[in-house]
Write a structure and sequence with these properties.
With 117 residues, this protein is mainly β. Helix content is 5%, strand content 59%. The strands form two sheets. Strands 2, 4, 5, 6, 9, 10 and 11 form a seven-stranded mixed beta sheet that branches. Strands 1-3-8-7 form a four-stranded antiparallel beta sheet. The radius of gyration is 13 Å and the shape is globular. The N and C termini lie far apart (40 Å).
Amino acid sequence: QVRLVESGGGLVQAGGSLRLSCAASGRTFDQDLMGWFRRAPGKEREFVASLGGSRGPIYGTESMKGRFTVSRDIAANTVSLQMNNLTPEDTAVYYCSASQGNTWRYWGQGTQVTVSS
């Protein structure tokens, strides 16, 4: 059974930083994408970042690209998201995901990130 478990969420003031981590078990994703999505209250799920396969890091928006860094530890089967200069607009539940083929198939339970102004 594949499991993705996120950690590292919490409450931070605007301008602060958080690092999210996601540990996968049940299979490896060496050749697949792993990444992050988020869902803010009252909004649709939004792509944040991904990394893997033959692709370099991909970010959902220019704002994310300038403030977030996605990284992988293939040997440990983990993906992380370093988030800097956070704003209240970054408040959301952040979900780790892993792909199979062209589909984001596996999902974690999510971790809450709250940024206070």
